[in-house]
Design goal:
237 residues; mainly alpha; 10 helices
Length: 237
């Protein structure tokens, strides 16, 4: 007697069961994606997911740009020109990265504004708010370090102004300014430091904070709007 022909569901479940038995990733994925949420949430609650999507786009386009970029005072601007004018679809990748950074900041402002106005930062979600605030600072620093990498006249002088402003901050200001400039004036070392911070240090901090932020959101759940009857019944604050 011939063995029964496996169904499509059994064919799909076989590798999933293999992965689940050895790692538990399938059940973890179900735990993360299929969760109860308040009935009266709106599209405003999707701003966080939009931010993660934008960050992933920035990361992918940033890696592609790094393959062509030369972090030197002589080659930086020429490499940007090559990416824009000559490299295959370079204009598209650079445009996505450039305008994606602006969209990232706008979405971040809207997301933090929504959290603040709806009181989602209150007990027991104070740590969620703090990690979001740290993410905001990292994104601002990412924008600062990325602006100089074009190394044209506008980027050069705008970065000088920004660093000088930071240098006026009390106590830590002069040390931050000295750390960013790597000396008394802008040089090759300054560009190299900005590039390493923009490509390695700050993205690493952002990914770590996103992981912690998502853990807290999953652990504590999503809040209803302040005017929600569900929120009043549940006794949320």
């Amino acid at each position: 007697m011939a063995p029964p022909i496996p169904t499509a569901k059994e064919i799909v479940d076989l590798p999933l069961d293999w992965v689940e038995e050895r790692s538990g990733l399938v059940s973890l994925n179900k735990y993360l994606l299929f969760r109860n949420v308040p009935k009266d949430i709106s599209w405003l609650q999707t701003l966080g997911a939009a931010l993660i999507t934008t960050f992933l786009i920035q990361a992918v386009t940033g890696v592609i740009l790094a393959m062509y970029y030369h972090p030197t005072t002589d080659g930086a601007f020429e490499s940007i020109r090559y990416i824009t004018d000559t490299a295959t679809l370079g204009w598209l990748v650079r445009g996505m990265h450039k305008w994606g950074s602006s969209i990232f900041v706008i979405l971040l402002f809207l997301h933090m504004g929504r959290v603040f106005l709806m009181g989602s930062y209150k007990y027991p979600r104070e740590m969620t708010w703090l990690t979001g605030a740290l993410l905001f600072l990292c994104v601002m620093f990412m924008s600062l370090t990325g602006y100089l990498l074009v190394f044209d006249q506008r980027a050069y002088w705008a970065s000088i102004v920004a660093i000088n402003i930071n240098g006026t901050a009390p106590i830590l200001g002069p040390y931050i300014s000295e750390f960013l400039k790597v000396g008394p004036e802008f040089s090759q070392n300054t560009l190299s430091r900005f590039y390493s911070l923009h490509m390695l240090a700050v993205p690493g901090a952002i990914m770590a904070l996103i992981g912690l932020h998502l853990y807290l959101v999953i652990r504590l759940g999503v809040t209803s709007p302040p005017w929600s009857k569900h929120r009043a019944k549940a006794g949320e604050v």
